[in-house]
Amino acid sequence: MFPGIPASHQVSFYTKDPDVCDGQMAEISHQYWTHIVPHLKSITVGTKLAPFPEVPSQWITVTIFFVLA
């Protein structure tokens, strides 16, 4: 999906766009993906190596911005 991210990494998606997030990053779970993504301006992709480090500074992150046509 993302050529720069090795297959051995766990990938998670985050956003802070919805008002309910109050500006804090929140993980987008699989069960809400189709409901929330159409309403977002950006998504941050976070990856972690196994065993997964709990320290966010050890994560690789990429932010994707949507351009509305």
| Number of distinct helices | 1
Query: What ranges have pLDDT less than 50 throughout 5 or more consecutive residues?
Result: none
Mean pLDDT: 75
Based on CA atoms alone, the radius of gyration comes out at 13 Å
Explain how this protein is built:
It is a single chain. With 69 residues, the protein is mainly beta. The protein has a four-stranded antiparallel β-sheet with strand order 2-1-3-4, with no helix packed on it. The longest helix has 4 residues. It is elongated, with a radius of gyration of 13 Å.
Give me the secondary-structure topology:
Elements: E1 10-15, E2 26-27, H1 33-36, E3 42-48, E4 60-65
Antiparallel strand pairs: 1-2, 1-3, 3-4
